[in-house]
Amino acid sequence: MTDEEHMGWQITSEGTQRPGPLPRGLRRIPRGVDELATEHLVLNMGPQHPSTHGVLHVLVELDGEEVIAAEASLGYLHRGIEKLAESRRYHQVPTLLDRADYLSGLHTETAWALTVEKLAGIEVPRKASWLRSLLMELNRYASHLVWIGTFGLDAGAMAPFLYIMRDREMILDVLEAITGSRMMFNYVRPGGVVADIPAGIDAKIREWLSHASGWLDENDALLGGNEIFRLRMNGTGVIDRTTALAFGMTGGCLRASGVDYDLRRDVPYCAYPELEFEVPTGQRGDNWDRYVVRVGEMRQCLRLIRQLLDGMPEGEFSSKRSRALKVPAGESYAAVESPRGELGIHLVSDGGLTPYRMRLRSPAYFNLAVVDEALAGGLIADAIVTLGSLDIVLGEIDR
Amino acid sequence: MPATRPADVLHACGIPFEASTEVLGEVVRLDVSLIADALAALEESGFDFLVDLFATDTGERLEVTWHLRAFAQRSDLYLKALVDYDGSAPSVWETYPAALYPEREAAELLGMTFTGHPNPKRLLTTDGTEPLLRKSVLIRTAEEVRRPS
Amino acid sequence: MSTALGVLARFGAMIGLLLVNGVVLIYMLRKVLGRLHLRIGPNRVGPWGILQTINDVIKLLTKEDLRPDSADAWLFNIAPFLIFVPSFMAYIPLVFGPTLAVTSLDTGLLLAFALTSLVPLGVLMAGWSSNSKWSLLGGMRAAGLQIAYEVPLLLSALGPVMMAGSLDPVKIVAAQSGVWLGFIPRWFVLPQLIAFVVYAISSQAETQQTPFDMSEAESELITGFANEYGGMRFSFMYLAEFSNMFVVSAIGTMLFFGGWQLPWLATPAWLAPLVFMAKTYTGIFVMMWARGSLPRFRVDQMLSFCWKVLIPVSLAWVVLWACIQRLWPVVSVAVSR
Amino acid sequence: MWGSGILNGMRITMRNMLRGPITVMYPEQKLVIPERARWAVAQLYDADGNPKCTACRICENECPDHVLSVVVSPIEGGGKHIDDYVYEVGACMMCGLCVEACPYDAIEMSHEYELATRDPHDLVRVLLHDVDAASPRRVKGGDDA
């Protein structure tokens, strides 16, 4: 295959021409990686590789060190969550969803609760909304911490990964004290939350908050302040605005490409309409922008957590509901801004005890689809960093 | 960017459809053969973002849903079309590259094809797996799962 | 007869030093990295975990000697020794005390650099013969980088060599005794600061430590050229890495920090080796500290940094220093007149 | 620029080194488990040492992973007899739905978290064996009093 053919061009008797305009956001037809190409080296990155963040398998076609094409091969963590949900009652589904995006289970749970509430017409007490928001922000911060650490590891810096554990342990302790579990919360249910926050937890969160900002500055100085890191990030893994939109990217990746869109502000849910925060955006959509946007989001997170603690209302934490919740037949969709982007749940109900069809619109799944566009043209080292900057969680991608 | 309503756009293209407003939002039901044209027209009218694509087994046929969003107007639109079991729908990857993965996923998990997909390999499951999300595929019941000592 | 025995004894001591060094350095690396990262490091085997490395060595030595089926057997088997032997031989010109060296050579420094520059050959061989894509990429990177960084490493050593007027490490160390202006130790690091910075950077690259560990690149190539190795062969490569660290740090001590001499004081002969080791280990600690703190360069950035920054700077410094040294007597005479 | 960021980074790591490790030496030191932490399911007993379980089998029905199975046989003259209350701890995901559902507070999510074992038989536990189930009225009354 010649280079011209590869890039979607054809050589005919009239000269070189394109077979037609390529769809927006694409440089060439995404045929995948030719596994039998011998002039290039096809590298099987993963499923056991330290930098694929789980069991992702990326086929990378290399010309020397340069990446020619890349293709993600998924499914190593496919547990059939969507199928399993069809056999579980509405209040049992969150146990599955915790395991979909294991770094931010509360977001998935809340998305589920919002979807069911929308279809069943359940009113949620104000306190429950605020509690959900508080926990989601804590969880978002924890998830971003893991991202900043693993991103550092991808770039070769070991220190941040271990420093973030100091913060994260404190957050997980708080979440465990509130929900009963460190990662698999099972706390948000349709109609509200399972329990009120225990006494004394407010002080514990505030104690963490007093350190968090300084620790974040430390990690930011270790990575963002470092010249080597900047050299690595600037101008690599560029995903421009058109590509990002065309591939359905959401969250920090989309904002880094210059699209100012945040569900918390634009399609408000829970307590967010009452809160003040900014939405950081980038311009070029390279790795550096994605880094800056996420670190900016973490700072906004701290701001939101403070507001949520100060304004926590009194009242019921859950509306009265029967355990065997029946949802009228119909469909609904609700989404939350998870650390990775728009996490939506599409629910189809036939009026029975269990959902008829549950579709999880996972943000990392769509963000990962851009892998070929983002990786091709860079070096292996850039590919690793770009994959890391997309913040993928395989549990959510493979479901 | 022409800020027209989806119904007007589809009328202008002469595509027959059936629109309704449900809990879900604005839903447009149309024949599967018209999907490619409808999506191309809608994309041009400002629905530049494919939020999701998935299929549901309704018991008799498969219902494919295209979830579109117009960023400028902040409005969502759901297109639905019915496909026979093992039938096919046109691939819309040229209009929405975001459809590349979900089309592969829907194809393998519900047993259908998307014609024109550039890389129609399986995405999540291995070759030979039955279409898992069909209602005819049953998962183990509680009695089968329990392993009393 | 007595000379032959003496040489044998010295070689024996050298091998002992090398093995003890390897074990100590691996333990030290794990402890230092642990502490830098708010961890404890090894702490289960023996008091404070000091027996951990011995445990690991025994484990590695008793492991099955595996070779991939499709590997080039001969090259695959010989590569670890090609990496290990030169780094071990590079101990020969090190001067541990006024009379404590394996042998005194007029061109000792040259020998040390020549031997360390053989290492990339073995690395390339290991990467190629493993018949693994990851190893191949790692081997290629190592060859490209280590050869490139040889150049500034050598050039930066020229400054101290000019000051001492000899390539013999014993004479270079001896030239650094005494003080300038009554209180500044006559260490070459002060006038040769630029050369020292270049030396520090390129020695970090030469020993493949983070920010320059592209050939291993944990998060990219897993362990690069050493990917397919296990057991004893892997332990040889691992040992060579630490032995290299020791060698570059020891040479740095001799070139820039007065070798075995204490500042200001006369150094008793029994104390000299301890002073030398203390200085060398401080250098190694700094290398490990950088390793625990910094992200990794990209391969092309690292190469262009070497060819476009380090080499021109060190070349210019060599020329500048030659001019200074040549003109200084003239100028000082003119000034005093 | 000019390496100041690199030096600053090294300063930060050194400062953290001097702060000392944050490791908890696990088997010797243990963290305090929060009150709500959910670990292995355990049976609760009343003051007389009889299980509070009434063999209503709601927990069995509620468990999403079907790890609980209660084998019940009726007693002649009223009441139930629990032949076996089997809990497959190896498959349990500690979601706590069974405890939430239990109308008699007869089970709890205990704080027993060291569940690793060398013996696969330990992964299936028989929480109750060959005991008479409590009568629902007695358990309720006991709670009220």
Counting copies of identical and different chains, the oligomeric state is: heterotetramer
Mean pLDDT of chain B: 83
Number of helices of chain C: 12
CATH class of chain B equals Alpha Beta
How is this fold's topology laid out?
The complex is a heterotetramer of chains A (399), B (149), C (337) and D (145).
Chain A: H1 3-6, E1 10-12, E2 15-17, E3 41-45, E4 57-63, E5 66-73, H2 81-85, H3 93-98, H4 105-120, H5 126-154, H6 159-179, E6 188-189, E7 192-193, H7 201-223, H8 227-233, H9 241-246, H10 252-256, H11 263-266, H12 287-310, E8 330-338, E9 341-349, E10 357-361, H13 363-368, H14 371-375, H15 380-389, H16 394-398
Helix pairs in contact in A: 4-5, 5-6, 5-12, 5-15, 6-7, 7-12
Chain C: H1 2-36, H2 52-61, H3 73-89, E1 95-97, E2 100-101, H4 108-116, H5 119-129, H6 133-164, H7 169-174, E3 179-180, E4 184-185, H8 193-206, H9 218-221, H10 231-256, H11 272-293, H12 299-336
Antiparallel strand pairs in C: 1-2, 3-4
Helix pairs in contact in C: 1-2, 1-10, 1-11, 2-10, 3-5, 3-10, 5-6, 6-8, 6-12, 8-10, 8-12, 10-11
Chain D: H1 4-19, E1 41-43, H2 58-62, E2 68-74, E3 80-87, H3 97-101, E4 107-109, E5 125-132, H4 136-144
Antiparallel strand pairs in D: 1-4, 2-3, 3-5
Give a description of the structure:
The complex is a heterotetramer of chains A (399), B (149), C (337) and D (145). Chain A has helices at residues 3-6, 81-85, 93-98, 105-120, 126-154, 159-179, 201-223, 227-233, 241-246, 252-256, 263-266, 287-310, 363-368, 371-375, 380-389, 394-398; strands at residues 10-12, 15-17, 41-45, 57-63, 66-73, 188-189, 192-193, 330-338, 341-349, 357-361. By secondary structure, chain A is an alpha+beta fold. Chain B has one domain (6-145): NADH:ubiquinone oxidoreductase Nqo5 subunit (Beta Polymerase, domain 2). Chain B has 4 helices and 7 strands; from the N terminus they run αββαββββαβα. A 5-stranded mixed β-sheet of chain B has the order 1-2-5-4-3. A two-stranded parallel sheet of chain B has the order 6-7. The termini of chain B are far apart. The relative contact order of chain B is 0.15. Chain C has one domain. In chain C, 66% of the residues lie in helices and 3% in strands. Chain C has 12 helices and 4 strands. Chain C has helices at residues 2-36, 52-61, 73-89, 108-116, 119-129, 133-164, 169-174, 193-206, 218-221, 231-256, 272-293, 299-336, and strands spanning 95-97, 100-101, 179-180, 184-185. The longest helix of chain C is centred in the C-terminal third of the chain and has 38 residues, at 299-336. Classes of the chains: A alpha+beta (399), B alpha/beta (149), C mainly alpha (337), D alpha+beta (145). Chains in contact: A-B, A-C, A-D, B-D, C-D. The interface between A and B is large, with 45 and 38 residues.
